[in-house]
Predict the 3D structure of the following.
Amino acid sequence: MSWDNKFSKDAQSIRASEIRELLKILADPAILSFAGGIPDPAMFPMAEMKKIRESLEDQPDLDRQSMQYSQTEGYAPLRDWVASRVSTSEITFDRENVLVTNGAQQSLTLLSTVFMDPGTPIAVANPTYLGALQVFGTRRPKYVTIDTDEHGLITASLETAFKGGVKILYTIPDFQNPGGMTIPEDRRLDIIKLAHEYDVIILEDTAYRALYHDTPPPPSLLELEGKYLGGSSWQENGLVIQLGTASKTLMPALRVGWTIAPSAILDKLVLLKQANDLHTSTINQIITYELLDGNFDAHVTALRTVYKERKEAMLDALHQYLPNSVSFTIPTGGMFIWLNLPQGMDAKLLLARALDEEKIAFVPGAAFFANGGGENTLRLSFSTCSPDDIRDGMQRLSSLIQREYLEKVA
Ligand SMILES: Cc1ncc(COP(=O)(O)O)c(C=O)c1O
């Protein structure tokens, strides 16, 4: 029996994630993978986690509470921690502005249900996070793609889209997934001004924000909007909704993320989440809070050092081995470098050869383009391989690109 015509329109519109499919192939230990945008498990705070578990056992009431149902909004100390982390001298947030979600991915799901109908025009960068396209796709919106350069979203392209009636902009301003670009402060200010001029909601995804390598990224869009509006009026007039996650700095399996929004929006999100899954795992929220409230800053500093070293190994090798016809981004944080191959090359075909001939993997870039294109692009992640493996892998990748270019394009 064919189920295709029995599925709802939403279910029919779900697209398979090439990355998830690829991750299945990567179970082969012989393959050196630069594909998954995942944190290095060797850096997980396992010892801290053990201490937290032991300390819970010593507090029977909290231990039992951690296994109980809890309120949809989230564990209050965790909400307070998030609110205080994003508060500045110009704008303060409190727990009423914070909803704990089952990862940032659930924030995207709830926000798309709250704001998107079939045909709703939404602006996304070319390229953008595939998981966002997957969840937005279930709402069947109309994608308006925004061009990017090495500094992320291009303001002129954004203004054209906003003038055309876009309702929502989804953006990852810091160390973007997949491009690695960071939007500079002046462009961020332009984005806020344009959003207010054209009344566009901004979904600011800060998944990688804490993972800078040398210096912190510019102020977030949320922070800049607070300044722009004069702080207190954000609750009534704020257009920026910020998403965060513990996945990239702590551990993805905690499945803890959050949404920061004016309370009128938050109330709607809470109702939807309640209908969806009642609440995020109580024990996971308590563990997350204890990890964040403990040695978090030292832990993130260690992550920055490790990822910076790996990024430098990757950039050095790419500079050394890649032909000049291939350009790439120079990220200042996060996990990704983005490659532009010469026109006419197809990264999907290249991946098939890379797996077969060189036993290396990356993600072909086309999947990150909402309306098609990007066949000659690819994403490399430097988060999980050692500098030596990175150098070796980049040399192999570069030589494969040379061979492919000579055989197919030149
Ligand atoms: C930009 C971006 N947003 C959100 C997510 C989802 O994160 P979480 O594990 O919190 O659901 C990811 C994960 O890769 C991501 O790259």
